[in-house]
Specification:
mainly alpha; 64% helix
Length: 138
């Protein structure tokens, strides 16, 4: 009898997985698609090219971004809406090559900071060293 009772209660306890903080992959995928569409629409409204939109949002799903961009383009064309110029400049994410270049430059600076610079020889020290090397001719 207990076994049947446990089997009946098992679906009830598993139905509350969202309350436990276990992510739902379907909801996560739907949210990513909706966010991609919103990004695409916002890019088109701001007058950005589709390629710029992809470059500015590398993690967004490209198909969803394109869908949002295209639907906003159609909407703006139908209603004769002009693009709104963005007021805040956007920083383009760095490429892997740029990041590697910056790391190499930082390593060179770090290495230069640890290497002692050669001592600057004063003119007086050079004269003394020369006078010790050259025998005096009288």
């Amino acid at each position: 009898m207990r076994r049947y009772l446990l089997l009946l209660l098992l679906p009830l306890t598993l139905s509350a997985c969202e309350e436990l903080g276990i992510p739902d992959p379907e909801k996560r995928a739907a949210a990513a698609l909706a966010e991609g569409r919103a990004i695409g629409g916002a890019c088109r409204h701001a007058g950005r090219a589709l390629e710029d939109c992809f470059a500015l949002n590398p993690d967004a799903p490209k198909a969803a971004v394109f869908e949002g961009w295209r639907s906003m383009n159609d909407y703006m064309t139908e209603n004769k809406i002009q693009a709104v110029k963005p007021e805040i400049p956007v920083k383009v994410p760095k490429t892997a090559e740029e990041i590697a270049h910056e790391k190499a430059a930082a390593e060179q600076e770090k290495q230069a900071a640890h290497d002692p610079e050669p001592a600057v020889e004063s003119p007086l020290a050079r004269l003394r060293a020369r006078s010790q090397k050259e025998p005096e001719a009288h």
